[in-house]
């Protein structure tokens, strides 16, 4: 039983590394998409593909390493751990980006977008509220922003893990 848990954790780490590299690649399109709308669309499509990729990885794990059978809780543990490891790897890229590359660019662009939206009739209360949120995020250090993003990625990963585990699980049919 201990060997099975170690294998699950090890394979979740391997697939989580692949998922994390995918997330890093996907993240490159986020700041670029603020200047080029097509790249924003690419970012959105790649983001929507994350659950599909998670399903493919979980199914591959089930078929290659579990003999084609996987309980719900094993599938849930694998998916959750895969997203945790992907989040940890992606957090490194987020930290590097916010510490050394961004220099306030994202907040500047969002500030401009809010000012443009504030010119529209009836949008003033919404824009004021969003501007307060943006100011709160501006106050965060790169490490705090990174921790915010890693917790967000783990939270959404855990939400995605549940339906993925339901789709991937396959019970052994007892032979009498």
Kindly describe this structure.
This protein has 176 residues and is mainly α. The protein is built from 7 helices and no strands. α1 (2-33) runs antiparallel to α3. The model has no long low-confidence stretch (mean pLDDT 91).
Quick summary of this structure?
By secondary structure, this protein is mostly helical. The chain contains 7 helices and no strands.
Helix and strand topology:
Layout: H1 2-33, H2 37-48, H3 50-65, H4 72-101, H5 105-118, H6 124-138, H7 142-168
Helix pairs in contact: 1-2, 1-3, 1-4, 3-4, 3-7, 4-7, 5-6
Q: What is the element string, with H for helices and E for strands?
A: HHHHHHH
Unreliable stretches (pLDDT < 50, length at least 5) are none
Query: In this structure, how is the largest beta sheet organized?
Result: none
Number of domains: 1
Q: Over all CA atoms, what is the radius of gyration?
A: 20 Å
Name the shape in a single word.
elongated
Could you estimate the helical fraction of the residues in percent? over 70%
Helix tally? 7
Which structural category fits the helices and strands?
A: mainly alpha
The averaged pLDDT comes out at 91
Query: How many angstroms does the end-to-end distance come to?
Result: 25 Å
Number of strands: 0
Strand content: under 5%
């Amino acid at each position: 039983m201990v060997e099975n848990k170690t294998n699950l954790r090890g394979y979740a780490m391997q697939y989580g590394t692949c998922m994390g590299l995918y997330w890093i690649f996907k993240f490159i399109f986020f700041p670029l998409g603020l200047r080029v709308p097509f790249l924003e669309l690419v970012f959105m499509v790649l983001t929507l593909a994350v659950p599909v990729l998670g399903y493919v990885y979980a199914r591959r794990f089930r078929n290659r390493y579990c003999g084609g059978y996987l309980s719900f809780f094993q599938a849930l543990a694998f998916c959750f751990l895969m997203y945790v490891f992907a989040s940890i790897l992606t957090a490194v890229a987020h930290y590097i980006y916010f510490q050394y590359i961004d220099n306030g660019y994202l907040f500047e662009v969002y500030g401009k977008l809010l000012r443009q939206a504030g010119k529209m009739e009836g949008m003033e209360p919404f824009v004021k509220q969003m501007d307060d949120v943006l100011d709160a995020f501006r106050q965060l250090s790169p490490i705090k922003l990174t921790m915010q993003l890693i917790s967000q990625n783990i939270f959404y990963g855990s939400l995605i893990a549940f339906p993925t585990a339901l789709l991937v699980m396959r019970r052994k049919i007892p032979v009498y």
